[in-house]
Structure formats: C-alpha cells, structure tokens
Design brief:
The chain has 237 residues and is mainly α. It has a domain of 79 residues: Serine Threonine Protein Phosphatase 5, Tetratricopeptide repeat. α5 packs antiparallel against α6, α7 packs antiparallel against α8 and α8 packs parallel to α10.
C-alpha cells in the first residue's frame, strides 16, 4: 500500500509540474496579442489572473486586447485593475486615457494623460494624445503646448502638425494654421484631409478663392469627397 501511495504522489507531482506558470501564460498571451489574436490573448491573460491575481501587466495587456476589439468599457476596467495593483507605471494610465478618448470622455482622458505624464515625461505620445484631449475640450492654448512638445521629438510628424493646425484654427489663428497645413502637405503629398482643411481655410478665413479651390480639387482627387460640395458651390467657372 505504501508503494502505491508513493507512486500516486509522484504522479500528482508530475501533473502539477506540467501546468504552465503565470509567466509562461503571460508570454503566450503577449504572443497572441502580437498576432492580433485578441480573443485568444484574453483567454491567456484570464488564466494568468486565475493563477496569480497580483499580476498588473496581465491586466494591462488584457486591457489592450479589449481595446483592439473596441470593447472600451472592458478595456477601462482592466486598465483600472492594473493601476490598482501598480500605480507607478505610466502605461495603464496612458492606455486607459486612450480608451476614454474613444468614448469622447475627454476630461477622464485628460486626467489619465496627466498621471501618465507625471510618471514619465519623456513619452512624446503622451503629449500628442493629451493634446487631442485638450483639443476635444476646446482648450486650444494648452493643446498647442502639448503638440509643440510632441514635435520636439519628431518635427515632421504629420499627425501632430495636422492637429496643431486644428488647434490654431480653434484659436482664431488661420495664418499659422495654414503654415502648419502647408508643412503637412509638403511632407505627405497624399494627405487629402490636410488639402481639404487648407482649401477651406484659404477661402473662408482669407477669402483666397484661387488657392482654396486648388487645394480643394487636390483633396477631391485624393478621394476626399467632402471637398466636392465646396468645389460645386465656389469653384465653378
């Protein structure tokens, strides 16, 4: 009987040793995330959390998977769990801010970006995304400060330049907005949205019909169909 018990206990030891660790499950989840297998990734991260509840990176990564599936509230809940376990990491704050942005909850997003920036002020994406939140809140001066901070890292980032132009227009500064938009189309000659905004600004703010129509026609040629209405109304000979 003792011999059988010994063999049984060895069998249990072998079975338990075959169970993947929380780290192994986490790595498998990250691999699934990188392959864009988001539901599979969530299953792995759920198993991590079942194995080891105190694993903030698993909650954060699961939030990213929910985010990619456009499940904003579930993403926010996961990021919040990660923050509760470790409030010293900027990433879940930043990620939760992004989820709030998708819900157009700009004040909540701004709070999270402020926290993320306080934890790591060397991340250009935080400045850019916080600038977008400030733009959504119509806080144009503050948005411009953040966009300029983001441009210090990459002066030729057309996303930042385009939204800087929108903030300048919100600030009733069409001349500088046109300068920013001209820089966008210099860097990206297929940026239809920039040509459209440039054309509308030239015409509506400066009364420059010829330049405005040229830009609007370029926008339309690149597939920006909203330009057609302006062209039909103002650019016909």
């Amino acid at each position: 009987m003792q011999h059988h018990l010994l063999r049984f206990s060895l069998l249990l030891l072998l079975i338990s040793s075959c169970q993947p660790s929380a780290e192994e499950l986490f790595d498998a989840g990250v691999a699934a995330l990188e392959k864009q297998e988001y539901n599979q990734a969530i299953e792995y991260f759920d198993r991590v959390i079942e194995t080891e509840a105190n694993f903030p990176s698993a909650y954060n990564a699961r939030g990213v998977a929910f985010f990619e599936l456009a499940q904003w509230d579930k993403a926010i809940d996961s990021f919040s769990e990660s923050i509760e376990l470790d409030s010293s990491n900027y990433k879940p704050y930043f990620n939760r801010g992004n989820a709030f942005m998708e819900k157009e909850a700009y004040k909540e997003a701004l709070y999270d970006y402020n926290r993320a920036n306080g934890l790591d002020f060397n991340q250009p994406d935080i400045y850019y995304n916080r600038g977008l939140a400030l733009l959504g809140l119509e806080m144009y001066d503050d948005a411009l400060v953040d966009f300029d901070m983001a441009l210090q890292a990459n002066p030729e980032d057309t996303r930042v330049l385009f939204n800087k132009a929108k903030a300048q227009l919100g600030n009733n500064d069409p001349l500088n907005a046109i300068t920013s938009l001209n820089e966008v189309v210099r860097l990206d000659k297929r940026n239809a949205a920039a040509y459209y905004l440039l054309g509308v600004t030239e015409m509506s703010a400066l009364g420059n019909k010829e330049a405005g129509c040229t830009q609007l026609k370029m926008a339309l040629s690149l597939g920006y169909t909203q330009a057609k209405e302006w062209i039909d109304d103002f650019c016909q000979e």
